[in-house]
TrEMBL record:
<keyword id="KW-0418">Kinase</keyword>
<dbReference type="GO" id="GO:0046872">
    <property type="term" value="F:metal ion binding"/>
</dbReference>
<dbReference type="Pfam" id="PF00480">
    <property type="entry name" value="ROK"/>
</dbReference>
<keyword id="KW-0862">Zinc</keyword>
<keyword id="KW-0119">Carbohydrate metabolism</keyword>
<dbReference type="GO" id="GO:0045127">
    <property type="term" value="F:N-acetylglucosamine kinase activity"/>
</dbReference>
<keyword id="KW-0479">Metal-binding</keyword>
<dbReference type="GO" id="GO:0005524">
    <property type="term" value="F:ATP binding"/>
</dbReference>
<dbReference type="InterPro" id="IPR043129">
    <property type="entry name" value="ATPase_NBD"/>
</dbReference>
<keyword id="KW-0808">Transferase</keyword>
<protein>
    <recommendedName>
        <fullName>N-acetylglucosamine kinase</fullName>
        <ecNumber>2.7.1.59</ecNumber>
    </recommendedName>
</protein>
<keyword id="KW-0547">Nucleotide-binding</keyword>
<keyword id="KW-0067">ATP-binding</keyword>
<dbReference type="InterPro" id="IPR000600">
    <property type="entry name" value="ROK"/>
</dbReference>
């Protein structure tokens, strides 16, 4: 039995996994963000709730494990930031601990149980508050030991012109410290920022999308430019990875007309021309981080049993 945990800035969600087809949610608890002892006790409470002894704990978390030092970068949960979290929790709890980035867990869930089933190479893209991604090849998470593979949202690669006719796009500063990243325009907050930059209008992303679907001129311009800006780096990601399907998660994935526009734009720019949808809505709609972490834990357990 694996206990999987999806660690977010506001809540920790738990689950019990006995196989790929037997993953049961356990509920949620508030995340202790500033007290590591309280954080550990919260994890311990999930273990106690099962009444069983797990073979390992598998975590999905909004952070990145350094593959060399195994230290975690997790800015929104200070008590675990810059810790060797797996080793620290193993020492406290007495069970093997596996930790993976939440976007990587999303990609694993989609590759095994979602829209990526039957595909050798799956790139899972997140278009939520920001932009993220994960890469799975032949059932194996590329970031199995940690790292930044799949982070297509960062790097100074955004076009300086977009749309038809072309409009100049400033290199907007990104939270990662660089300028001109896809993350500056690609997520929901980025879409709002782009609309403000183009038209000096402050609207939530939901309203921008609603106006676009009603055919309003300024929102239509913003979505056209958004699609142009995001499609090129996503097409490049497909070219580099060889992915044959890109399941999309996050809030913007719920806007199927937007995904259809993005799919058409990406497919027109990839070297391999697909005659079917490539950019698709994710299928694991219920806690993909929890599912992905469970799958990673089950795979790790299977490898250990093989030895």
């Amino acid at each position: 039995m694996i206990i999987s945990l999806d660690i977010g800035g506001s809540a920790i969600k738990g689950g019990i996994a006995r196989s790929e087809t037997d993953i049961v949610p356990m509920g949620r608890r508030p995340t202790p963000k500033d007290d590591f002892a309280a954080f550990t006790e919260t994890i311990r409470s999930f273990i106690a709730e099962t009444g069983e002894t797990p073979s390992c704990l598998a975590f999905s978390i909004a952070g990145v494990v350094d593959p060399d030092t195994q230290r975690l970068t997790c800015a929104n949960i200070p008590c675990v930031h810059d810790r060797s979290l797996a080793a620290d929790l193993e020492a406290e709890l007495g069970f093997p601990v596996l930790i993976a980035n939440d976007a990587d867990c999303f990609a694993m869930a989609e590759a095994e149980l979602g829209a990526g089933r039957g595909h050798r190479i799956v790139f899972g893209a997140i278009l939520g508050t920001g932009v993220g991604g994960g890469l799975v090849s032949d059932g194996r998470l590329v970031n199995a030991s940690g790292g930044f593979a799949g982070e297509w949202g960062h790097g100074p690669i955004l076009a300086c012109e977009a749309g038809n006719p072309p409009v100049k796009i400033p290199a907007l500063p990104c939270g990662c410290g660089q300028k001109g990243c896809v993350d500056t325009v690609g997520g929901a907050r980025g879409l709002e920022r782009l609309h403000k930059t183009l038209h000096d209008l402050d609207f939530p992303s939901e309203e921008i999308i609603a106006q676009w679907q009603r055919g309003e001129e300024k929102a239509t311009s913003t979505i056209d430019i958004y699609t142009d800006l995001v499609a090129s780096p996503l097409a490049l990601t497909v070219n580099i990875t060889g992915a044959t399907i890109v399941p999309v998660g996050g809030g913007l994935s719920n806007v199927e007309p937007l995904l259809a526009e993005l799919d058409r734009a990406v497919r027109s720019r990839t070297l391999r021309r697909f005659d079917r949808p490539l950019i698709v809505r994710s299928e694991c709609r219920l806690e993909p981080g929890l599912i992905g972490a469970a799958l990673l834990g089950l795979k790790a357990e299977a490898v250990l049993r093989a030895f």
